[in-house]
Amino acid sequence: MKVYFDMDGVLSDLEGDVARLSGFDDVRDMKSRGLMHENYLKQREDVGPYELFSEGTPIQPQRTRQLMMEIHAAGHTIEILTSLGVNSPLDLGDETHRGKADWLREHYSDLFEMGVVDRMNTTTKGWQKAFYANPDSLLIDDWKRNTDAFQKAGGLVVVFDRFSYNESVAQVRAVLGLEG
User: Fold this and answer.
1) What integer is the mean pLDDT of 12-32?
2) What SS3 state is found at 89?
3) How many CB atoms lie within 10 A of CB 109?
4) According to the model, what pLDDT value does residue 89 have?
5) What does the pLDDT look like over 136-180, one tens digit per residue?
6) Which of 7, 47, 114, 148 is spaced 20 to 30 A from 71 at the CA atom?
């Protein structure tokens, strides 16, 4: 099976970083006020797309690395599937792509070098991840609209919740038939 890991919200804490940069102690507070998108756009402009993505905070890096190693050892292929979140690839997409690629180099380069993670794929919008879906693919993503589109296109999904990390990992392990 091909397993696609989303970056923002699964590997890196983009929403938490945006909340902190915007003066919120907890991302849930910012989201409950309906301010996520507005603050994301502001920080993307103020900080810059490269810096916003390249300097992100990892989510449970050691445990995520362990999960990736386990998935790979079971014979599955792992790829990163992330959205640039732009209207056009020409609309700051290069800076976002470069920031995300540099973030992966900093935090997961050894897994790429060992062949645990094969490649980074990007889409312009999150729903376009569905173009990668097939019955032998799994998307791990924190945005339900992305997982809904992927599932509708024929792929398997786990809606990842960083606040319920253990439960999300248990769902991934169950879908892939991993022990434990």
Assistant:
1) 93
2) coil
3) 11
4) 55
5) 999 999 999 999 999 999 999 999 999 999 999 999 999 999 976
6) 148
Q: Which two tokens stand for residue 171?
A: 């769902």
Dihedral sign for Cα atoms in the order 52, 57, 58, 62: positive
Alpha-carbon gap, residue 116 to 2, rounded angstroms: 12
Contacts of 141 (CB under 8 A, 6+ apart): 4, 6, 9, 10, 81, 126, 129, 147, 150, 157, 158, 159, 160
Inter-residue contact 155 to 131 (CB < 8 Å): no
* CA 21 to mean position of chain CA atoms: 20
- DSSP three-state, residue 46: helix
> Has this prediction a pTM greater than 0.90?
yes
Query: Is 3 in contact with 68 (CB distance < 8 Å)?
Result: no
Alpha-carbon distance values, 41 to 38, 62, 63 (Å):
5, 30, 30
Q: Distance between CA 45 and CA 36 in Å, rounded?
A: 14
Tokens of 69: 């190693």
Give per-residue pLDDT as tens, 32-80.
999 988 998 899 889 988 999 999 999 999 999 999 999 999 999 999 9
